[in-house]
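tool_call: predict_structure(chain=1)
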Amino acid sequence: MSQVKLLCLTLLVALASVTTGAWAQTIEIRQWQGTNAFMRQPEQVTASTMAEWRSLWARVGARAPDVFEPGRTNAVGIFLGQRGPGHVVNVLSAVRRRDRIMLVFEERGPSDFMIAQRTQAPPLQPTSRALSSGPALTSPTANFAPPGAAAGFPPLPAARPPVGPASSPWAIVLIHRTDLPVTVEQRLFR
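tool_result:
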């Protein structure tokens, strides 16, 4: 009797994980990438017909490979728009989650630029001003900076823009399924 309970419990856990989306199935993909698309603005484009497949490749100035099969494959074009040199599209995963295919990518770039994107703006410098002319504010025990003294915040490193010609990074991903909708998600930071 304990084996039956164990089997029922195992099936219940498996069913719960499938229905809650905890289970993900890797999807077979093929991808191409480059740095110079004609797209100057960020865009994600899907293709399910031969005309749309050829249109994706026209955006990067290349002839479409003869691998697209309408009704059997889908494609997604990921265009980052105009960037400095050294940026690329990095496809992280393509998995089935519940009732859709999730295609996850990130933008990779020069380390100085990517760190600058994560850095917050420097805090505003406080200014000293008298709120009262009473003796308590001028006493040595008040713990206020004297008028005209600057606060000691360390400066943040200046972000240097990459030197070189502008690029427009792209990736085209061929997905070997058509039975589920595709959602494209960009991972911003690791």
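agent: The chain has three helices and eight strands. Proceeding to next step.
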